[in-house]
Structures are given as structure tokens and as C-alpha cells.
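Minutes, project check-in
Item: structure for the 1007-residue chain
Input as provided by the requester:
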Amino acid sequence: MSTFKIILSDDESTVVSEYVPDSQRSEAFQSEAELEKEFIRLLVLQGYEYLTIHNEEELVANLRLQLELLNEYTFSDGEWKRFFQECLASSNDGIVEKSRKIQTDHVQILRRDDGSTKNIYLIDKKNIHNNRVQVINQFEEDGGTHDTRYDVTILVNGLPLVHVELKRRGVAIREAFNQIRRYQRDSFWATSGLYEYVQIFVISNGTHTKYYSNTTRNSHVREQTRSGREKGKKTSNSFEFTSFWADGNNRIIPDLVDFSKTFLAKRTILSVLTRYCVFTSENLLLVMRPYQIAATERILNRILIATNYKKTGSTDAGGYIWHTTGSGKTLTSFKTAQLASTMPSVDKVLFVVDRKDLDYQTMKEYDRFEKGAANSNTSTRILQKQLEDPNVRIIITTIQKLDVFIRKNKTHDAYRQHFVIIFDECHRSQFGDMHAAIVKAFRNYHIFGFTGTPIFAVNAGNNGNPRMRTTPQAFGEKLHTYTIVDAINDGNVLPFRIDYIRTIRQKDDVEDKDVLGIDTKRAMAAPERVREVVRYILEHFDQKTRRESSYMLKNQRVMGFNSLFAVDSIPMAMKYYAEFKRQLAETRRDLKVATIFSFSPNEEESDVLPDENFETAALDQTSRDFLDSAIADYNASFNTNFDTSSDKFQNYYKDVSDRMKKRQLDLLIVVNMFLTGFDATTLNTLWVDKNLRMHGLIQAYSRTNRILNSVKTFGNIVCFRNLQQATDEAIALFGDRAAESIVLLKDYDSYYSGYDDEDDKHHPGYTEIVEQLTTEFPLDEPIVGEENEKKFISLFGAVLKLRNILSAFDAFEGNEILTERQMQDYQSRYLDLYQSRRQESNDKKENINDDVVFEMELIRQIEINIDYILMLVLKYHDSNCEDKEILIDIRKAVDSSLQLRSKKDLIEAFISRVNADTQVDDDWREFVHEQKESELSALISEENLKPDEARQFLALSFRDGSLQTSGIDFDHILPPVSRFGSDDRTAKKQGIVEKITRFFEKYFGLV
């Protein structure tokens, strides 16, 4: 371990190393008003200035004063009016544009009265203590869709940059989240729109406190605003993407008192706003999580101390960061590289990856964080130019290119420069000769490693340099840890659910020390076994990948998730691909299956997955010919033109990666590729016919556990080998001894019958909740009173959540307790309450939904589609229109479907026309076409819309699966302004939006 004399102790880290919660806690009841008052008192004690500002005029006057103080300049009235209208409150700017002004364009240009210009700082990022922090509460906004009053807002230089929404203790924190979402929809944009400058939202019920950014942290989460001014664009619309604050040991700081003393300490909140936010090229604001900030600051601190003590050129100047797979290491490394490159003593930051595909992925991610911030290279010659160019500060390269450069240049000026070298996933090939060559060539360096699965003595193996086998040996001291247990506890990744499927039964006299259930290599590759494994996958594919579930993915509605199939060798990949192709043709099933592999020098079992490069030329002729054939199938499916030649194979890899992320591929067969470093939120299942251990196992499993939505609640692992012991050992090493209960999903009985946790707290199972539901809310009795409505919503929401998990277990089939009709009836009641409360919230100034949470994403994923209804209509037709029970089934099915409710009148009108001569499918299509055309013509006529533009706009909306009522495309279908004047244009436009939305929902999925 490195030791240094302490010459300066800095207790002002953004993330405190260890926080001891305040033990003084009042046990008395605390109302929301009392909580707010106490919260403001704490902020004032920390140096915030409290202002009694409650309206727009006062807010703008204070903003002018604060900017004058920050910039040491007094605006004339004309200058201020011009600057405010053009730079701060332009009607063309929304959340995205205003976030950009805070994050990247925080110096605005003032046109002075004399014609000259002056830089005006909105925030001082270099000297953060120059910024003035104030707090206001109960600000009233009456210019939005509804009159609103905001709880607590933190002003930085007069701009509202942090907004805090409070609920009293005992009320669900999610209610505060819903309230902010409603503000974003109804009023933040109102008047001058200054509240669209809010960068960070804080939600709290006193007991639990979380924060999140003003734009979504993932591009697939999107709010489709349907009222008010629609310039908000992408905003956070998923509670899953809120974060707790924590100390350096990853201990969360949930209580509002403790949160106020840490996250909202003046220096901390200003550091987060000015240093630890990233506004991406996709216009998303990412606020770093506490473990990411802690890791970044510890690296920067190590660089500073090691430089002062002249320790560069050794592991004492570096260290490694152990952050589990899926926790956002790329963002942490980007921010580290960005900040390190601005340190006066540092010449360059070198970010080193160990595979060509990761070079491409990292550059793509860095470009997403900030276009042009880093420089990649396609050859050693370009790398050399970058190393010699003083203006190039951050370089991304592969270890192979760096190794070639060193071998070609025994001496070079770059070796004497002050370098920060960061290795990504430092447990792989960096432990070899190339790593030794790099640290030998460079003289004045700091070396840091990022890994999700470090190598320790217990899993180091016996190969290679004995002084370079473990992560600490190669990189130095561990600087920060964030394990898979931490990530699952924080909700940043999902737990795993593992099935072990026995495919070979051992003879009694055969022992296999490595994996139980494995006989011989020949038996594993037997055609009969391959056939049975493929049959099992196809039979269970829809169940495991949730193909009955639908959700929105980048403006498209998709069904279910996709999967990887990891096999142990190229010959096995070829056998499995051929068998999938044969069985899919036999069953005429339309699944998109592909395979990708390249030469790997060592396919033997190892703790670390072997490297695969893009060198297909090294494949034997049989393997290469087969791969060309499989790529030809892919080309036919997707109208592409790839093959195994060098450049085209690299493009094939990129295209496969892209289609996996878009869920256009159903199953990808791999040997080692895609099992490390590949992130696709739509991937939920890994089929495994491969021996995996330690970090190779955790890396492969972790492809499945990225958070997407409330439908995806865990990563599915289906093992055709007995990897239970290997799984337990890996989780114990990379989590802790008690990790299994957190990392792995509980068994079927726990969810079905309930269980007690370590604190003896009982978690009711599915049977208990269903019994409570049917006892307290029998279907033949109405739900009376608001309290009963809330209880029913909570109970049925719990049923939906448990059914969502249990549906992945084979044993649940036939044990659902509730019949299909009962489920439909309960779901109809649930939807009735949802729609009635949504209507009431639109009619009233104060929303009444604060204390209920509807699980609508889970409702949507069990939608009944129109094909099912038409099947029932055909059944009714075949009964000579006499079986009225079928009509009841149709009504119940429609009422239980959120999607089909908007089509109820259409369906009932069609059924009333059904007779003995009806051709159900053909007549339905004709009926829908006639009704759609009739209603659209009437809508165009009534609202005086432009006919051609309106028809084209709706045709594209039906094609894309979403209705975009913001932007110029929608404006083009509207009548001229003069038709209804500018004063009531907004109201008129809103009326058209509502009518077109109803029309779209009625016919979407039918045309």
C-alpha cells in the first residue's frame, strides 16, 4: 500500500468519505409545512440566503441583481430587457436549450447600449464560491395550464437550478416525483419559463430523499407532453432513474436532514452543478452518482499528491477503481479524463482499451458525452501524430497500437511528458508483456485501471509474470469500490434469475471435478443434445424474453426483449446455428437468429474470457466459409452487404451491435464476443452452454441486468451446464459472503407463498395478496370511498408486480389462482379508477393523484390485441350470433385493455353489423377503413385543417407508432393564424391536439 506524509488535509471532497447520520431525531409527527420550514432553516444555517419571493416579477428583479453582482456590471434598463428576452427567456428555448446555457454556454454575450459587447457569466465554473446561493419557497405560477405553487427552490445567481419537492413523512416519495412531472407538463414553461433552468430535482418525504436530472438519463425514457407549450422535449419520466446520495463507502444518506448537510452543502451542490454534470451530444443531462464522483476525485487527488511527492512512474502514483459492470464506468472515466486533462501539470490523458471493438464503443460513448472531446486513431501512425501534437489532450487507443508504437520508437519525447494513463477493464490482456512494455517506456506517468471484476490472488492463475498477476500488482492501491451488491441495492442494475437445465445425466461411476452434469466433450457436442437444447430454447423463448409484453423503445412499440447464446467453441456455434435454422424452418417460426465469432488463440476454459479480434483470416477454411454463409443469411434478412473480409466484418460487428440494441435481432450466438463490454438494455436473457468462472462469469451474466423499465425486473440466465458452484464462488468474490440473497432472484416459493427477511419482516406472497384482494374487494361488490379505492389500487398493483416476476417461472402456469375473466374484471376496475382520476386531475387545479401509483407499464405489457377480439367475433359469428356469453367476453376483454378502450365504440358498432353473411376479417378491415376515412374527413372539415398535410402527418404517425404534436410538422397542418387570431391560438391548437390524439388512439394498431 502506498503511504504519503500528509501536508494538507482537504475535508471538502464533494462526496464525504464517511457520514455518520445525525442521531438527534424528533419522534413527533411532522406535517409537510413543518418539514419544509425545518429544511429551509438547515439551508440557512449552511450559508444560504432566504428570500421571500413568491411571484415572477420578484424572481426576475432578483435575477438581475445577482447577475450584476457576479459580473460586477450594472445593466441599463434597455440592456437588461434585451439580455433577458434574447438570452435568458427566449420563447424559442426550452429545457434542452436552457440546460445547454448552464452546462456549456454559461458565458452569454450582452449587446450594450453603445453597440459594444460584454461577456456575462450565468455561473462561475472556475471559482465556484463566487456564485451566490439563495433559497425561496411557495413560489406561485398562475400562467400555466393550472395554478401551481412550488415547494422549495434553490437559486444560483438568481436562476432556479435546483428544485425540491417535499411530502410529509409516511407518504410515498414517488408522489413528489409525480408532482414534479406534472409541473414539467403544466407550468415550468409558463410566463418567462425560468423554471426550465432547473438542472437537478430533489424529492423527499423526510425519510427518503433522492435526486435526478431535468432530462432523462437514458434516451429511451421519454415524456410525450400533450398539453401546454411542448418545448420540454425529453424529460425524466421514469422513477427508476432517480438516485440516492451516499458517502464514500456507498452508504446511502436518505434522511432529508443528512441529505441537506451533504448533497446540499454549498460547496457540494455547486461542484455537482459545475463539475459533475455531463450534457451529452444527445441533449441529455447526466448527473453523476456519488460513487462516480468519489472515484473521480480520488484519482485526481492521487495525481496531485503523487506529482507533488515526485512518485510518478510507479504504481504509487496510480491505483484502480473497482466499479461493477453496468455501473457507468465509461462516464466516470470520461469525466476523470476530462478533468485530469485540465490540470496544469498534465500534458496528456491516454485512455487505453484492449480490443478494437471497445476502441470504437468508447469513442462513440465519449463523443456522446462531448463531441470532439477525445481523439481516436485508426493506425499507429495517427497515434504517433496525436502523441506529438500539444493541442491533443485526450487520446483513446488500443493497447495493441500503443505496443506497436513503443516497439517502433525505442526513444521518443512523449515518454518524458507527464501522462495520465487510464486502462479500461484492466483485468484482461494488460497483465501481459504489452503492459510491462508500456510502463517501461513511459517515465513520468500515473497509471489507473477501471474494472468490474478485479484479479486477486485467489483467482489469479499461474500464467504470466508472477509480479503482474493481480490487479493491485499491476495498478497499485484500490482507490474506490462499488460492487454488484451496492449496485443492486441502489437499483442501478438488476438481480439475476438462474435456471440450471440438465442436458446429460452422468453415469454413476463417472466423476467430473469441473462441472456436474457434464459427461465428455463428445457427449456435449452430440447432435441429440444440440437438438434438445435448441428445442428447449425455442419452446421457452417467448416466456423468457417476455414476448407477450409490450413497451415503447425509441418511439416504437416493441414486444419483449432479446437474448444472447454463449457457446464454448466455434464448432459448437456452427452446430447450434445450423440447428436453429433447421428447427425454425420446420416450425415456420419467424425469429431473427445470427452468429458472430472470430479467431481466438485460446478457447480453453479460463477465469478470464479470451480476447477475440476481427482477424477472420486466421479462421480455418471451414469455419470462415460457415461464417460467410451465416452472414449471407443476415444480409438477406436485413438487406445488408457484409462478409468476412476485414473491413466488412468490422462493419458487420457494428451492425449486429446496433440491431441488438434496437431489439431487431432476437438471438445472437457467440463464443466470446459481446460477453464483455457490450450494453443493450433490451437484452434480458443469456442462454449458456459454456464453462464460465469468476470474472468471465460475472461479465457474461451482466449483459442481461441493465435497467430498462418496470417490465424488465431481472436478468434471465439459463444454464445448460451446472454452473451453480461457479456462480456462488463468483458472487462471493465480487460481492461479499452475503451477496447471494441480493444478487440472485429469490426462488418461486418465496414470491408465490411469501418469505421473511433477515430482520424477520414478512413479505407477503402472491397467494396472500390475491386472497386479500378477493376477500376485501369481491367482484360482485362496488368499491366505495376514496380510501378503499387507494387500497384496491395498491393491492392490484402488487398483484401485477408479482405476476410479472412469477410469469418467468415454469411452475406458475396453471397456478395463477385468478381466472382469466377475473383478471380482466379486476383490471377493468383498475383502469376505470386510473381514467377517472386522470380526468379529475385535468379538471381540478390541485391533482388528487398524489398518493396513488398506477402500474400502467405493467398493464400495457399484458395488453389484449385486436386479433384476440376478432377471434371472439368470429366465434360469435359461428354461433349464428346467438351465443351472448361471447359478447360478454368481448366487453370484458375490451374494458380490461387500456389500448382497446379507445376503440370500444368502433368494435361495438362492427359487432352490431355482424350477421350470417359477414366475413369477419375482410369486413372488419373494410369497416375500419370506411370509418377512419369518414372521421378524418369530418375532423379536417370541422377544424379547417390543411387536407393533404393532415393526411400525410397522420400516415407517418401511424407508421412510426407515435404522435408528435410538437414541432413544425404539426404546425403545418393547422389553419392560418388569421383564422383564429393570436390571442386564442394556444387554446385552439390544444383543442385540435386533443381531437387528433383521440383519433390516433382509436385507429392506432388497426391501420
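Outcome recorded: Residues 820-843 form the longest helix (24 residues).
No further action items on this chain.
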